[in-house]
Amino acid sequence: MRSPLRLHTRLFFTESVRALGRHKGRTALTALGSMIGVGTMIWVVAVGEAGKARAEKELHDLGDNLVWIEAGSRNVNGVRTGSHGTSTLTPEDAEAARREIPLIRSVSENVDGTVQVALGNRNWNTRYRGISPEYLDIKRWKMAEGAFITDEHVRQMASVAVLGETVRSRLYGPVDPVGQLLRVNNMVFEVIGVLTPKGQTGSGRDQDDTIMMPWTTAQTKIRGRNSDFLDDILASAVSVQAVNAACDAATALLRQRHHIRSGEDDDFNIRRPDEVIKASIEASRTLQLLLVALATISLLIGGIGIMNVMLASVMQRTNEVGLRLAVGATPHAVRIQFLGEAVLLSLAGGLLGVPLSAAGSFLLARLLGWPVSLSWKAAALAVACSGVVGVIAGLYPAWKASRLDPIAALRTE
After folding, report:
1. Model confidence pLDDT, tens digit, residues 111-156
2. Tens of pLDDT along 217-266?
3. CA dihedral defined by 123, 125, 130, 132, rounded to 10 degrees?
4. What range does the domain containing 355 cover?
5. 60 to each of 64, 142, 158, 196, how far by Cα in Å?
6. Does residue 79 sit within a domain?
7. Domain co-membership, 122 together with 31
8. What is the CB neighbour count within 10 angstroms for residue 377?
9. Phi/psi-derived region of residue 118, left when phi > 0, alpha when psi is between -120 and 50, beta in every other case
10. 271 vs 91, 154, 249, 274, CA distance in Å?
11. Domain final residue pick, 197, 224, 257
């Protein structure tokens, strides 16, 4: 035997659905407001989380507590110079940083530019990097095959190369390149390893379109024997908290070594791209909050629509309400009936907004190339917010219906 509570609940639900079904078009249009509001809120949260995750991945890929010293000042007599603009950064500066800055854990010399690489009738123009063994950990690269450059390779100026995935696929296809020979410009290099793919940066640059070699090899064989300067010195601080202090220590050391007087511009530049990416993460979070606020406004507008529909329903059902009150229904029961209809209408629209947001997230992921995933916590919160909006929107119409005078309501045409 069914309990009175279950029977009452079923009757209440059935009556609410029947009342809303009398005006299907109006009900559908009203639920549309809640559907769009909920769908937008879930979609915004999903996109915001995807953007934040992408920025955090870029921050991670940037390097291990990166301290990036670049040759050339950012502003020399009003003219911006930079890497490849001056030759004041030397291997001795890198060695001094290793030796004299306790806050720096590891250092890699860096020489870079573009080269033509060829294998048989295949060739490819790519970017080379002349580096030291520490570069692998500083920039958080991993090896897919083979081995990385060693200190012995650096000392011997060995003609060895490690390939990025893009270069490997362009020249070798599915063939394992480790141990194979490769022409770099007009010189023969041995491929000793292949890097694990990293993908594109936020600016769209392909990080895997690269070939790495010992920095001494890049200086003497790619640039020529008179090119004894570095483009960059890349270093890792001992901790995240030590990055700024390590940058300050590097600045003081290089100013002393380069004999730069007080008040004169540096002939080097210490870049802090992590700050830019962190600012991007904060901007993404701020934008996400703004968009959530807009989605909330959309829900509130939907709530206003629900209130108007329920007020119209009260006017159209005045005789029905008067009859119920006349045969013994309490004002509380009438309030519950109309409030339930408002909540049901709002929740129906909210639940329909979930698949709408999933479709929107999928389309945006295809357009942006971001791994956008639906947050079920955000979906549950958005639907719950929709229900709350329904409660708020239904309070006044429910109160108005419960205050009707039965005799006056029955006389209403």
Report:
1. 999 999 999 889 999 999 999 999 999 998 999 999 999 999 999 9
2. 999 999 876 678 899 999 998 987 888 899 999 999 999 999 888 888 88
3. -70
4. 4-58+278-411
5. 7, 13, 31, 15
6. no
7. no
8. 10
9. beta
10. 19, 26, 14, 9
11. 257
